[in-house]
From TrEMBL:
It is an enzyme of class 1 (oxidoreductase). Fe cation binds at residues 232, 256-257, 327, 352, 385. It comes from Candida theae. Residues 111-123 have a biased composition (Low complexity). Keywords: Cytoplasm, Iron, Metal-binding, Oxidoreductase. Its cofactor is Fe cation. It catalyses: myo-inositol + O2 = D-glucuronate + H2O + H(+). Substrate binds at residues 164, 219-221, 260, 275-276, 352-353. Coiled coil: none annotated. This is Inositol oxygenase. PANTHER family: INOSITOL OXYGENASE, MYOINOSITOL OXYGENASE. Pathway: Polyol metabolism; myo-inositol degradation into D-glucuronate; D-glucuronate from myo-inositol: step 1/1. It comes from the Eukaryota.
């Protein structure tokens, strides 16, 4: 048989190709698909050879096999040979394709390069034109503006239970909330808003100067970090910037806590500046942290304020709800007056500490349709505000030029009356 001889000859020339030897038996590497087909072909040829030899031997030993049976054997042998020839053609085709797709060697690459005409690269293939760069920048910014609300993948697998662990918080944090919950009454909140609108503070400065001034404050309500305020502001903004969010979104990250400047002006302590916010004028939700401490609040037993809706109505809208006075409400009014931030950015500032709402989904019966849209914005921002806190100071001097430009873009009046 010519085919079998050819296989034996190849096996002698390449005894190790695609096989391993064990006890004189050739074992095909299962990962070598070509070797597996060769083995299959060899097995078919061996079976044909054995069938032929057996047939001839039987004819010699006995003439008892009927002629009809002999014809069937010959037809079977013919089919097997045809099958082998088909396999041979398939192997040749696959070998040719493998040769075409094989990576070129260094010599072949050099040969191809010599055959190709040498062309001098044009300027457009090296660097884009100014118009092209502007177009790409516009498309990038447009994409960021369209997808800013999509959740970031960066914090997808973060352990959220590692943050806001108030059960494990130090006594300083617990004492703060006991004081805040006892003193944030309807009467106080009405007076705080009157003071904000009528008092002249004469504290004019740029946004960056305000950030530097805020650096002197340590937030007594935060159980997650003791970093400086400017470090937290830059960490939040940088996390938003890293994810390619719009520039207005980045600015919100930078200034969202800037209202804590209130501590240096009209505050009675930190209890009316920092900490989680909540509605006053209706029943205090059990979803607020340390809810039992509200028992010391004069409004707790007031029949005007201790019902589900209190002084509000169903789905009246959060813009008509009086949230506990603090840095969120203060900075919201400053940004609304002086900045060009969109409504989503203003909502991020106003409600970012309203954890009973955007995290625990309390007070949803006070929401209107507009609040449902703003909730998406606040949730998109909250992950950066909460999970970007790491015990590592930012390089303020390095980041300052970028954020000065960002501030000027959205605050036309560089000097703000805080």
């Amino acid at each position: 048989m010519v085919v079998i001889s050819s296989f034996k000859s190849r096996a002698k020339q390449h005894p190790q190709r695609g096989t391993n030897m064990k006890n004189g038996i050739s074992l095909v590497d299962p990962s070598d698909s070509l070797s597996a087909q060769v083995l299959s072909l060899a097995c078919d040829m061996s079976r044909i050879s054995k069938a032929t030899s057996s047939s001839v031997s039987n004819q010699k030993r006995s003439k008892l096999i009927p002629e009809k049976r002999e014809g069937q054997l010959l037809e079977q042998i013919d089919d097997e040979v045809l099958h082998v020839n088909v396999l041979r053609n398939n192997l040749k085709t696959q070998a040719a394709k493998a040769a075409e797709t094989r990576e070129p060697t260094g010599e072949s690459v050099a040969s191809l390069q010599q055959q190709l005409p040498q062309q001098q690269p044009t300027q457009s293939t090296i660097t884009p034109t100014i118009e092209e760069e502007m177009s790409l920048q516009e498309k990038s910014e447009q994409l960021a503006d369209e997808n800013w609300h999509i959740a970031t993948e960066y914090y997808k697998n973060i352990d959220t239970k590692a943050f806001r662990q108030y059960e494990l918080a130090c006594d300083r944090v617990k004492s703060f909330y006991e004081e805040q919950h006892a003193k944030q009454t309807v009467a106080y909140n009405i007076q705080a808003r009157i003071n904000f609108k009528t008092k002249t503070r004469d504290q004019k400065m740029t946004v960056w100067q305000a950030l530097e001034k805020l650096n002197k404050l340590l937030d007594e309500s935060d159980p997650d970090t003791e970093l400086s305020q400017i470090s937290h502001a830059l960490q939040t903004a940088e996390a938003i910037r890293r994810d390619g969010r719009p520039r207005w979104f980045q600015l919100v990250g930078l200034i969202h806590d800037l209202g804590k400047l209130l501590y240096f002006y009209d505050s009675h302590g930190q209890w009316d500046v920092v900490g989680d916010t909540f509605p006053v004028g209706c029943k205090f939700s059990k979803r607020i942290i340390f809810p039992d401490s509200f028992k010391a609040n004069p409004d707790f037993l007031n029949p005007l304020y201790n019902t589900k809706y209190g002084i509000y109505s169903k789905h009246c809208g959060l813009d008509k709800v009086m949230l506990s006075w603090g840095h969120d409400e203060y900075m919201f009014h400053i940004a609304k007056k002086y900045s060009k931030l969109p409504k989503e950015g203003l909502a991020m500032i106003r409600y970012h500490s309203f954890y009973p709402w955007h995290q625990e989904m309390a007070y949803t019966y006070l929401m209107n349709d507009h609040d449902k849209e703003m909730l998406k914005a606040v949730k998109a921002f909250n992950q950066y505000d909460l999970y970007s806190k790491i015990e590592q100071e930012c390089d303020v001097d390095k980041l300052k030029p970028y954020y000065l430009d960002l501030i000027d873009e959205f605050f036309p009046d560089k000097v703000i009356d805080f």
